[in-house]
Amino acid sequence: VDTEKNLWIDYAEGCGGSIIDLCMRLERCTFPEAIRCLGQMIFGCRTSDYPRTESHHHSPERTNEGRKLIGISDDLPPHLQDYLTKERRIDLGRARSFLRCVRYEVRGRTYEVIGFPNASGGYELRGAGLFKGTLAPKDITPIFPDGRQPVCLFEGFMDFLSFLSMKEKVGSHCLVMNSVANVGRCIRYLRERHITVLRAFLDNDDAGKRTLSAFIDAGFQVEDMSVHYRGCKDLNEFYVSRIYRLREQREQAQITTKPSHPIKLKRR
């Protein structure tokens, strides 16, 4: 076990991975079930079962940036569901198992935000407005680790959820960076698994270009998928704009094909 990298390896069987991979292997469970299981272990709950809708209440804990953690639940409140489905156009039926509701307090006020778990037990946080944050520790999030190559690489979890919503089925190994600052961790993760081919869904900005160059310079064969959404900031913006464009086209088609009423001539 490497406690600095939060990784493990079984030399006898020639396998290894993150704490989530280990939990999935020991408990014989899926990725979402492993997240719930680890969450219960952190908060002193039983690990023999992990109900889907139970809130994990515990003694308030002071977190980074002055936030006092109150609890983590599987159920997203209506305002967060509306944000995901109406503003981000995310398919909740496909995305729900990857998300949590994180409740915290700042200066006596309670907030509820979307939590996306990472490989070290931390969470990426997103509010229904402009708020973005992290519940430490910060780390990457591998998803579908048994999936096929090339690995689909995403800068943030909203892009991954957009990809998930766009596809009938996702059979590829996916990796969410959770920050371009995690490029080094991503490279180590990929090299330890002898992965060489990537499909990068990064942002169309300078940071995205630098990140793409970092993977290419590290020797990976990278397909830059951002060329398919040029003119958009990221994959989610492209996905949302495409939905609106398709809706406008359908509405226009309905107007064009609407049958006209025949003109009746009066008899004299």
TrEMBL record:
Pfam families the UniProt entry points to: Toprim_2 (PF13155)
Parts of the chain that traverse the membrane: none
GO molecular-function term, one example from the UniProt record: zinc ion binding
Biological-process GO terms, alphabetical: DNA replication
InterPro entries for the chain: DNA_primase_Znf_CHC2
Protein name, as recorded: Mobilization protein
